[in-house]
Recover the amino acids of this structure.
């Protein structure tokens, strides 16, 4: 019984549709229906917030409303939907692209349901010609009717993998491949204190065009190589900080500065 499990809310529906282009760009439409199980924890989802990078994607709310057990419907007005910077961006300009889309909801009561339909358009691929995405069902959440549908060109050689009770299928149609993952029921549970992260044992579904983790590492290193280069100013700073020390002593000295 979810209401005895301590779970603050239940996902009654989460349908995700992703259309991927050969360039690595994609459009993702999400339709979620959430039920608040403990009204005392309303602030956990009100305002409802979604994080994204404004430099790489556009995110918009297509529709949002609250329905009550008595049949009433409260539509969230456009004036209650806004975008703000991530708080950490105030002291860290490198995060200026990080935004939070916030949806201020009418007060939620017991057994009220929140309906949100959003659309995310990736305007810059993470890696040209590649696509990777992971969906996690936190082990502490309760869910019903969670479905993910992905369509991509067959030429991208998209692969899928999962852990937990996902049911995965795929089919081809002409030059396209369709991959679906469905989770009919997931009961919230709390395995207790653990030394590993929750993602280590929560049900995961992943799709990727990368054939291996080595290929992922190579792609990231292609981005980081220039930034890891030892320029004359970096070398001069390191020589000054290490004071002529060698080996581990030099490493310890360098760890005390931020280059």
């Amino acid at each position: 019984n979810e209401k005895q499990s301590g779970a603050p809310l239940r996902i009654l529906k989460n349908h995700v549709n992703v259309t991927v282009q050969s360039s690595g760009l994609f459009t993702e439409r999400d339709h979620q229906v959430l039920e608040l199980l403990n009204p005392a924890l309303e602030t956990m989802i009100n305002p409802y917030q979604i994080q994204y990078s404004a430099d790489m994607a556009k995110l918009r709310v297509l529709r949002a409303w609250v329905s009550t057990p008595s049949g009433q419907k409260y539509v969230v007005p456009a004036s209650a939907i806004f975008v703000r910077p991530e708080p950490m961006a105030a002291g860290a300009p490198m995060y200026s692209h990080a935004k939070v889309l916030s949806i201020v909801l009418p007060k939620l009561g017991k057994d009220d349901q929140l309906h949100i339909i959003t659309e995310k358009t990736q305007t810059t691929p993470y890696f040209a010609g590649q696509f990777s995405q992971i969906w996690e069902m936190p082990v502490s959440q309760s869910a019903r009717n969670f479905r993910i549908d992905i369509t991509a060109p067959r030429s991208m050689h998209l692969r899928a993998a999962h852990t937990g009770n996902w049911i995965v299928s795929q089919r081809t149609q002409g030059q396209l491949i369709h991959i679906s993952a469905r989770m009919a029921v997931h009961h919230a549970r709390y395995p207790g204190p653990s030394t590993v992260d929750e993602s280590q044992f929560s049900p995961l579904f992943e799709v990727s065009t990368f054939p291996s983790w080595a290929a992922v590492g190579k792609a990231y290193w292609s981005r980081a190589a220039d930034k890891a280069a030892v320029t004359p100013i970096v070398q001069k700073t390191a020589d000054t900080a290490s004071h002529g020390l060698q080996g581990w002593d030099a490493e310890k000295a360098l760890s005390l500065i931020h280059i």
